[in-house]
TrEMBL record:
Matches recorded under SUPFAM superfamilies: SIS domain
Listed name of the protein: SIS domain-containing protein
Residue segments, region Disordered: 284-304
Family annotation (InterPro entries): GlmS/AgaS_SIS, GlmS/FrlB_SIS, SIS_dom, SIS_dom_sf
Record has Repressor as a keyword: no
Repeat keyword on record: yes
Length: 304
């Protein structure tokens, strides 16, 4: 269960591998983007943050972190499920491509009614001109369909805007990229990711990465909800992976099932990088292309 496997080989040229490994550098750049951070909502403003897929999970993490920091009411929505009649001072639209149908439709509905902020990877995308305040992160854009660095860089920007210190995350991310991964962690039958507070969104994102890149059986829950049913999935050969501090007694309860309890020792953002690496290694082991997952495209663009 503890034999290591090598770090991703330099001979492999997948976009996901390169983009994944660049995340500490991306987050460091955030430290110098004062104007971008200043474009995000000031404390006291009522805020909604929306996205699709990975961006929705990053929105969830930011919403909790902003409220925890005393920034004010912050709600996260999937773009298709936004409460259009609820009053907000600002709506943040998060999109790597800036072409996602649901995000563009929402931007159009909100135009002239509420202050809109777009965090976008592709500087030439239509979303840039649809929002009042575009925040562009083209250096973090990606070629792989499976998102890694854009999502975490956008979240790093949003966390920094509410006073979160990114230095521990940057240092731990370098460790997450360089360390050897245990074979048992990579070769498990099933994974359940858990989080508390702002890391619940990270747990959901980790599970999504595993599904997208390696077609793995994964689930995700708030940590305290795990014992309300989902723990019945735990068994030998399966992994329960905690992001951040685990609830008291949970590790012992999981161990009693025979499952592997992975209590993330790194900063939760860096722990997400570890999960991305596991997803990549599982894709390689299955002979899958992690840059072009089955049934997925870089952006969901719906026909009118």
């Amino acid at each position: 269960m503890t034999d290591p496997i090598p770090t991703p080989s330099a001979e492999r040229a997948e976009h996901m591998a390169r983009e994944l490994a660049s995340q500490p550098e991306m987050w460091e750049r955030i430290l110098h983007l004062d104007a971008a951070r200043a474009g995000l909502p000031a404390p006291g403003r009522r805020v909604a943050v929306v996205g699709c897929g990975t961006s929705w999970f990053m929105a969830q993490s930011y919403a909790v972190a902003r409220e925890d920091a005393g920034g004010g009411v912050t709600d996260a929505f999937a773009a298709s499920e936004f409460f259009a009649d609820r009053e907000y001072d600002d709506v943040i639209l998060l999109s790597r491509s800036g072409t996602t149908t649901e995000v563009l439709e929402l931007a159009d509905r909100l135009k002239g009614r509420v202050s809109t902020i777009g965090i976008v990877g592709d500087a030439s995308s239509p979303l840039v001109t649809e929002v009042a305040t575009p925040i562009l992160l083209p250096f973090a854009d990606e070629q792989s369909v499976v998102q890694t660095r854009f999502a975490t860089t956008a979240l790093a920007l949003m966390l920094a805007s509410v006073g979160v210190d990114l230095e521990p995350a940057i240092a731990d991310a370098r460790t997450a990229i360089a360390e050897e991964l245990p074979k048992g962690l990579v070769g498990a039958e099933q994974y359940t990711f858990l989080g508390r507070g702002w890391t619940v969104g990270l747990a959901h994102e980790a599970a999504l990465k595993m599904r997208e890149a390696s077609q793995s059986w994964t689930e995700s829950y708030p940590s305290m909800e795990y014992r309300h049913g989902p723990i019945s999935i735990a068994a030998p050969g399966r992994v329960t992976w905690q992001f951040g501090e685990a609830p008291e007694g949970l590790s012992e309860q999981v161990a009693a099932t025979g499952a592997w309890f992975e209590e993330g020792a790194l900063h939760p953002l860096a722990e997400l990088v570890r999960a991305q690496r596991v997803a990549l290694e599982r894709a390689r082991a299955k002979g899958l292309d992690p840059d072009s997952p089955r049934s997925l495209t870089r952006s969901v663009i719906l026909e009118p």
